[in-house]
Amino acid sequence: MRVQSSLADVLADRQEAILQDWIREQVDSGAARPDLVSEQTHKAQCASLLEVLTEVVRAGEAEAKSGPNWSKLKEMLVDLSKSRARQGFSPSETARLVLSLKRPLFGHLRQTLGKDAAALGDAVWSTTTLLDDLALVTTEAYQQGREEIIRRQGQDVLELSTPVVSLWDGILALPLIGALDSNRTQVVMEALLEKLVESRSKIAIIDITGVPTVDTQVAQHLLKTVAAARLMGAECIISGIRPQIAQTIVHLGVDLGDVTTKASLQSALAIALNRLGLTIVPK
Amino acid sequence: MERIPILRLGNHLLVSIQVDLHDRLALTLQDDLTSRLAENGARGVLLDISSLEIVDSFIGRMIGNIAAMARVLDAHTVVVGMRPAVAITLVELGISMQGVRTAIDVDDGMRLLEAETAAEAGNVERPPL
């Protein structure tokens, strides 16, 4: 308790000085990055963090790692780290935000407890544990922030990569590009079916020219899409089957059933027009 | 007791499911439809499921069964207006309804039925119902 109180005293009495030292330390270690966050904002962030940290230590929540102030501090750090992940800080720069508080705190603790070696040792130890924990919080939050970005980008790519285009009145085309996995198939299938309802199309051409490999799983996904479209009263034609893919399909023993397949989108369109009783004639 | 109305439309029967199809209702529909088919010998059944939002394997199988029973009673079945979510669910459940004709809406479905019955009937005139 004595250790905690000495840290609390130091934090309360010398808050301004510690803040100055902390910010200087961050600038020196290159963790401040004035190119990403303005000096003023950075100072304000550090000041409020230090204030809440002081509250945490004063309320004795540092050892239990729980309590209203501790949650508030954690929340602040999480928000800060996530926003830093987005702003382009590196993980070590984000962690150093907290870790660079060590030197100023130790310095001020030494000045206060200089004579009492045992008390100083205890105070340094509890401070270092506290700061390490907080640094771990920032790192974890940073990582989460990064993962959120990746997830969002994945979602964006998923949506970008599934255009359903109308080729003719009653004929839709779905040019697939890139690898097909279960997730993408789901999105593609939904997009196609929605568009089928909307446009009242009778024929959908699924073009797989841009699909690099077709294995049993991809074929399974394609067949599911075809079956779902059939249930809604539309017929599917699979086009863009390259020679290698034709060979793979046969070697794998994939049964495409009674699905019409064509080598090129052009011939698929010809079939589709034919089914609708349309012909293209020269002018 | 709750029932799904079966409407006669020329030589065909129109069944439009506008409520949630629970199991008992589906069984009642199956009974009603088969007796109506046997009674007046309709040539086609148009099953409109555009308001059906939720299906399970039982209802999926039920729709397939209704089509198969109609086939036994010499009528064609066209299922129309299936929603995308329902189609995906049925495919994921492994129910592909082989042998059931489908169309995007009632309009298209009716045309399909007319074409099928006309092709089958050939030139033999059938008395109107």
For the record, give the distance between the C-alpha atoms at the N and C termini of chain B, rounded to a whole number.
28 Å
CATH topology of the largest domain in chain A: Globin-like
User: Which word captures the global form of chain B?
Assistant: globular
CATH architectural category of the largest domain in chain A: Orthogonal Bundle
The termini of chain A sit apart by: 95 Å
How do the strands and helices of this protein lay out in sequence?
The complex is a heterodimer of chains A (283) and B (129).
Chain A: H1 2-13, H2 15-29, H3 39-58, H4 61-64, H5 68-87, H6 91-99, H7 102-113, H8 117-160, E1 165-168, E2 171-177, H9 182-199, E3 203-210, H10 216-231, E4 235-239, H11 243-252, E5 260-261, H12 265-275
Helix pairs in contact in A: 1-3, 1-7, 1-8, 2-3, 2-7, 3-5, 5-8, 6-8, 7-8, 9-10
Chain B: E1 6-9, E2 12-16, H1 23-40, E3 44-48, H2 57-72, E4 76-80, H3 84-92, E5 101-103, H4 106-121
Parallel strand pairs in B: 2-3, 3-4, 4-5
Antiparallel strand pairs in B: 1-2
Helix pairs in contact in B: 1-2
Description:
The complex is a heterodimer of chains A (283) and B (129). Chain A has 283 residues and is an alpha/beta fold. Chain A folds into two domains: 2-154, Globin-like; 165-275, Transcription Regulator spoIIAA. Chain A is 67% helix and 9% strand. In chain A, strands 1-2-3-4-5 form a five-stranded mixed sheet, with helices on both faces. In chain A, helix 10 links the parallel strand 3 and strand 4 (235-239). In chain A, helix 1 (2-13) crosses helix 8, helix 2 (15-29) crosses helix 3 and helix 5 (68-87) crosses helix 8 (117-160). The longest helix of chain A has 44 residues, at 117-160. The radius of gyration of chain A is 31 Å and the shape is rod-shaped. The model of chain A has no long low-confidence stretch (mean pLDDT 86). In chain B, helix 1 runs parallel beside helix 2 (57-72). In chain B, strands 1-2-3-4-5 form a five-stranded mixed sheet, with helices on both faces. Chain B is α/β, with parallel strands linked by helices and 129 residues long. In chain B, strand 4 (76-80), helix 3 (84-92) and strand 5 form a beta-alpha-beta unit. Chain B has one domain: 2-Layer Sandwich (Transcription Regulator spoIIAA). Chain B has four helices and five strands. The model of chain B has no long low-confidence stretch (mean pLDDT 87). Chain B is globular and about 40 Å long. Chain B has helices at 23-40, 57-72, 84-92, 106-121; strands at 6-9, 12-16, 44-48, 76-80, 101-103. The A-B interface holds A 186, 189-190, 193-194, 196-197, 200-202, 224, 227-234 and B 79-80, 82-84, 86-88, 90-92, 96-97, 101-105, 108-109.
